[in-house]
Amino acid sequence: MESTFARSPAVTVLLLAVALVWISPFAWLVITAFDPQANGQLGGAHGVGLDNFLAAVSGSSGQQFINSMIISIGTATLTVLIATAAAYPLSRIDIPGKNVLLWSLVLLRMMPEVGVIVPVFFAAKTVQGLNAQGMIVSMTVLNIPFALLLLKNFFDSVPIELEESAYIEGASLWQIVWYVVVPLSRSGLAVVWFFTFTGAWNAFLLPLIFARTDTAFPMSVGLYAAFGQYGSIQYGFLAAYSIVYAFPAVVVYFLLRRNLNTGFAGVGVKG
């Protein structure tokens, strides 16, 4: 019965129609990106060329790509380092009220970003941090609570007997963390790094407030600023810019895919 239903021509046509609906916008995006004379209308390309992509990776657009990479990689790496250093003691030391502290931080982080942007802005302005470094530090602070919660749960899953054996063999605390705990928690570190990277890559409000010029914008703000920047919308440029903007996150996913698949299975919340 199920096999007959799956092979039904009506079902096949319906699935093809759904696939066409999902694929059409991306197909239009790709065609427009390679069309030097794109006008935003549906239809075939007026020509084929790489002019739009060259414009999307050069000048201020190219600088925005570099800014996004610096901010995203810096935020993800700094978040993982700080969260690791804080999560390991929370996992191994019986600190009174540590769960209350941890969940309090998470609840504070659940506040809308708009609700904390004003104090964050004035704090950064006071220390002259309205730049890429300030964005990295600010987004790291905002990402620490969830990273701390996730990494603590991963560290909880590492058998403490392995650390005790390493200690008996003469390993120091740093050697135990680096050679025992970190390798066994690699999937968890990959999950936290990936989510922090994509969150920083897609961040819009905080970079919009912190950055002041086109060359200081990351790509998330640059894409917004490009609409009507030259008096008219350049559809080919915007399409190419969108593809370039999406490319790094896709590449990072495939590079970390094996660890992410394992890490997602290990994500849990323990009391």
UniProtKB/TrEMBL annotation:
Where does the sequence pass through the membrane? 12-34, 65-88, 100-124, 130-151, 191-213, 233-256
Q: Does the keyword Transport apply?
A: yes
Q: Does the keyword ATP-binding apply?
A: no
Q: Which keywords does this chain's UniProt record carry? A: Cell membrane, Membrane, Transmembrane, Transmembrane helix, Transport
> Which Pfam families does this chain map to?
BPD_transp_1
Question: May I have one GO cellular component term?
Answer: plasma membrane
Please name the Gene3D superfamilies in this protein's record: MetI-like
All copies of domain ABC transmembrane type-1, residue ranges: 65-256
Query: What is the annotated localization of this protein?
Result: Cell membrane
A Gene Ontology BP annotation from the UniProt entry: transmembrane transport
- Chief location category: membrane
Membrane topology, from the record: Multi-pass membrane protein
PANTHER family under this entry?
A: INNER MEMBRANE ABC TRANSPORTER PERMEASE PROTEIN YCJP, MALTOSE TRANSPORT SYSTEM PERMEASE-RELATED
Q: What family does the Swiss-Prot or TrEMBL record give for this protein?
A: Belongs to the binding-protein-dependent transport system permease family.
Q: What is this protein called?
A: Carbohydrate ABC transporter permease
